[in-house]
Design brief:
heterodimer; A: alpha+beta; 6-stranded antiparallel barrel; disordered C terminus; B: about 180 residues; 7 helices; about 80% helix
């Protein structure tokens, strides 16, 4: 019996050592997943795509019933908004055309606003709520790379964290920490744009922290739109991130922090667009060499 | 062929956990409450109580394999669920020798399993800095709703699984 006890203790100790080693390995600085992990993720991803459709169907029946109740009110509201948009669409088209012409005359056709959209479907969401991730059905084969921005029609929802051949994992904005910063801006007239960084997601206030750099105008209003600035080099410019909810001074009173409410719904995500920025980091350097 | 049933069901639960949040009403998901499905663990508790003999440790082995699978697919931090599920199922395996298997005992063991497992996961995640939730918040917002929801799931599964697992267990004996 004492021998058995010793053996049991021994196994638990070995298990603990393996645990620490594995955690160390996975939290360490690694660019992408190891091959066995990719293989398992793709296999499970395939099975998920089979299961996903019927489950979704059942879940949709309930949401549909819920939606029906509000349809009338929503319809009224949407009709009002639609009439406002008609004018806007015309205006936007005009401005777009003008912009294109001006760019042509300037000989500058690429901009940090341009991107190739890659459509993807969400297959699963991590059940562990502290890890805010979703899995989508596009991978390296479709041209996805790590750190690409992921958006829905409403706005930005996160970035690609890891990729495998046929699936990839997306880190949601709600799970951002200080290692995933987005350089963002609030657009103003006459070059008085406000620049700063989206630094992390604050659980208490349920909003993103937008740290404004000192030189910028500090006079913020509630409801202003925060968009990505494209200065970080990875995300294109002009992706909608959220709206300003409140402005608070930071700990030392030197800078101001805006609480930003994400524009996209982080819970009902079905179809996403992965944003592949056309203008990559290397190109400006190349141009620099030529000059 | 029958030996494949258990891993297949476990694999199905791993996949279903990924869509579990969609099955809950959106209001519940958007609230502060964190409800985490531990369906794989609950099935392993059943396996441990009704399928495993005193000398066999299938449930612990499956705990290691499918815990690792959950880690790879859903969290990216390897080893957390693997270690937790294995050790919790090992404890359950030890406890079931002392008690007679019926619905009350299953509920009790399920309660112990979910509570200990979630606490261990919280501890590990807290140490490596994946969560900054304080103990009090954790108690109210996460562990109580999680345990209740999972026990409900256990009650739903009980009538389906009990007889089948005992039958498979007997067949496992005659085969050997």
């Amino acid at each position: 019996m004492p021998f058995f006890r010793k053996k049991r203790l021994f196994i638990i100790l070995i298990g603990f050592i393996i645990l620490v080693a594995l955690i160390g390995f996975s939290l360490g600085d690694r660019k992408n997943l190891s091959t066995p992990e990719q293989f398992i993720k793709d296999t499970v991803g395939w099975a998920q795509s089979v299961i996903h459709t019927p489950v979704k169907f059942v879940a949709n029946i309930f949401t549909n019933i819920d939606d029906l109740k509000n349809t009338y009110d929503e319809n009224q509201l949407l009709k009002e908004k639609l009439s406002q948009y008609k004018g806007l669409i015309y205006e936007v088209q005009e401005i777009k055309e003008e912009n294109e012409q001006l760019r042509k005359t300037l000989d500058k056709t690429e901009s940090i606003r341009d991107f190739n959209p890659i459509q993807a479907t969400v297959m699963s969401r991590t059940p562990e709520r502290w890890v805010e991730q979703i899995t989508i059905n596009k991978g390296e084969q479709d041209g996805l790379k790590t750190n690409m921005a992921v958006i829905t029609a409403d706005g930005m929802i996160g970035k690609v964290q890891t990729t495998s051949e046929f699936t990839s994992t997306v880190q949601l904005l709600t799970g951002f920490d200080q290692f995933n910063r987005i350089s963002a801006t609030i657009s103003r007239k006459k070059g008085k744009d406000i620049f700063g960084m989206i630094e992390e997601f604050d659980e208490e206030t349920n909003s993103l922290l937008f740290k404004i750099i000192e030189e910028s105008d500090k006079d913020l209003k509630k409801g202003e739109l925060v968009v990505s600035s494209g200065m970080g080099g990875v995300f294109p410019a002009g992706l909608l991130i959220g709206t300003v909810k409140e402005v608070i001074p930071d700990k030392y009173g030197l800078t101001r922090t805006a609480l930003v409410k994400p524009a996209a719904d982080m819970y009902e995500i079905n179809n996403v667009i992965v944003v592949d920025r056309t203008l990559t980091e290397d190109k400006p350097e190349d141009q620099g060499d030529k000059e | 062929m029958k030996r494949l049933y258990l891993p297949l069901i476990l694999f199905l639960f791993v996949i279903l956990e990924g869509v579990s949040l969609e099955l809950l009403p959106p209001k519940l998901v958007m609230s502060d409450l964190l409800i985490i499905p531990h369906w794989v663990l609950i099935f392993l508790v059943f396996v441990s109580i009704f399928y495993d003999k005193e000398q066999t440790y299938y449930s612990v082995l499956y705990g290691v394999i499918f815990g690792l699978l959950l880690d790879i697919v859903y969290t990216g931090v390897l080893g957390v669920y693997m270690f937790t599920y294995a050790i919790v199922i090992y404890i359950i395996h030890g406890l079931k020798k002392l008690l007679h298997a019926n619905i009350h005992v299953t509920l009790l063991l399920g309660l112990i399993a979910i509570t200990v497992a979630d606490l261990l996961i919280y501890l590990i995640f807290f140490v490596i800095g994946l969560t900054e939730m304080s103990g009090e918040e954790y108690l109210f917002y996460r562990i109580i709703p999680t345990v209740l929801a999972n026990l409900l799931f256990l009650l739903v599964l009980y009538p389906f699984l009990r007889k089948r697992l005992v039958k498979w267990s007997d067949e496992q004996l005659t085969n050997n």
